[in-house]
Fold this protein.
Amino acid sequence: SVLLLLNGPNLGILGDREPEIYGTQTLADIEKAVAEEVHPAGLELLSVQHDGEGELIGAVHRHRHDTVGAIVNPGALMIAGWGLRDALAGYPRPWIEVHLSNVWAREQFRHESVLAPLASGVVVGLGAYGYVLAARALLHLRAGDA
Ligand code: DQA
């Protein structure tokens, strides 16, 4: 089984990008930590990062039926990513939204996510560790399914 890790715009340069806000861990570091978290449960990680909304939508469509859940950091698409929102509305598995930073402690325009109402849960402000927590939560939800 495969878990989808989806990262949106500007998250490919994590570690180098505003490290005082987003931390020093790279996307590769995060992928490794999440993969290690889910491997013991028999899950492989499929990590996809795009800066463009269209590519992210395509990835959601492509992996609708071959993944068991998803961790999604939409980046700034949280604000007005209506197309990504609709793609995720049609994603048949549980998914969790993650933000590295505490978006509520930041500018007003980051205080509301158009995706969040569709997520099983949201992890905010805990840095790279938030992705690991989201992975654990998905394993937990999955165990409840069985
Ligand atoms: C972010 C928060 C967003 O508001 C911002 O646009 C990002 C990163 C985060 O992980 O904290 O690109 O999603």
About this structure: The chain has six helices and five strands. The chain has one domain: 2-145. Helices lie at 19-22, 27-38, 53-62, 77-80, 82-89, 129-145. The chain has a mean pLDDT of 97.
